[in-house]
Amino acid sequence: MVTVWFIRHGESESNAGLPTSDPFAIKLTDRGDQQAKQIALSFTQQPSLIVTSPYLRTKQTAQLTIERFSSTPQAEWFVQEFTYLSLDRRQPTTNLERRSKVAAYWQQCDPFYVDGDGAESFANLIDRIRYLRQQIEQLDEEFVAVFSHGLFMRAVLWSWLTNSVEISSESMRRFRDFADSFKLPNGAILKLQLYNSDIWFSPIITSHLFEQYA
């Protein structure tokens, strides 16, 4: 049996409402650093592999866990956030300032649309999800900690629960509705267990965080 913990990174500058531009370089806030400590303390056994995305905020979140389990191998997988807005036109902006562009993207609902440099399409996201599922199904390690991102983790959960890797406008709409239907706080953990063809997901876990979420 393989156990995978998907862990959302701690609060980032963008999550806190600060202006950001390059998604690769967004840092944690002081609150995010505290959440990273709480995550590291939540492990009751040593993971056999620690995975981060290419984005800095997952690496910062994972650092204390890596230090606690210094003998555990590390890897970087393509579990970065679904970044669908272009970077080539982006000056530092807040989430609030990007809201109209976000709404326009999802209103268009074209799964093959690429907004520009640094952006990916919904089809690209689904390709990454397919690849991740193959990676997990082929794991030799028994317990893997994957430090990832909110929208990407929702896509993983949606794909497995619905058994869908379809690329269409309708599936894109269904995913958006699913992603908007529940909270996934910074520092939250989603546990997956895979045994042969059977899969189990935990509820969204926040009990390790000092701040409790309803």
TrEMBL record:
One Pfam entry name: His_Phos_1
SMART domains named among the record's database cross-references: PGAM
InterPro entries named in the record: His_Pase_superF_clade-1 (IPR013078), His_PPase_superfam (IPR029033), PGM_Phosphatase (IPR050275)
Bilayer-spanning residue ranges: none
Molecular function via GO: phosphatase activity
Signal sequence range: none
Protein name: 2,3-bisphosphoglycerate-dependent phosphoglycerate mutase
